[in-house]
Amino acid sequence: MSHAWAQYPHPADERGYIVRIGDAVPDFELNCTDGSVYSRESLIGTPYLLQFTASWCGVCRKEMPHLEKEVWQRFGSGQFLLLGVDLDEPMEKVRTFAEQMGITYPIAPDPEGELFYKIAGPKSGVTRNVVVDETGTIVFLTRLFEEEEFESMKSVISRFAP
């Protein structure tokens, strides 16, 4: 299998990102556990957050309740979309994980890290958030779950969905 990072123009930064703020979000299509389908093209006109996660990731499990309450419940009113992207796990496992975590935002498996490896380099950790504006441009990137950075991310999101 050939990963996107092999062809991407940016080397991985200190946080493992191969995309930068100001880049167009890479092409993707996500088939969510609720049957909804989202793609880069279908989301033009809608600002959104791609939340990279996995059931085995402890930091992800810590962050997800905050994303549910402080981002999805607050900003997810049709003006802003939060999309969970579960790294390299099958649909049924992703569905069970979402139920266990009590999240209501859409979440989709990312088979073989197809989208993840367009965002982050090889051997990069999974806990990441990518905020994308209505034009498809990346406007904010987070790594791990750090309170100050999370608050900054919410401030950026609030510009799209006050």
Helix content, binned percent: 25-40%
The CATH homologous superfamily is called Glutaredoxin
Strand order of the largest sheet: 5-4-3-6-7
Poorly predicted regions: 1-7
Give descriptors for this structure.
two-stranded antiparallel ribbon; five-stranded mixed beta sheet; Glutaredoxin
Describe this structure in words.
With about 160 residues, the chain is of the alpha/beta class. It has one domain: Glutaredoxin (3-Layer(aba) Sandwich). It is about 30% helix and about 20% strand. It contains 4 helices and 7 strands; from the N terminus they run βββαβαβαββα. It has a 5-stranded mixed sheet, with helices on one face. Strands 1-2 form a two-stranded antiparallel sheet. A hairpin with a 5-residue loop joins strand 1 and strand 2. The chain starts with about 30 loop residues before the first strand and ends with a helix.
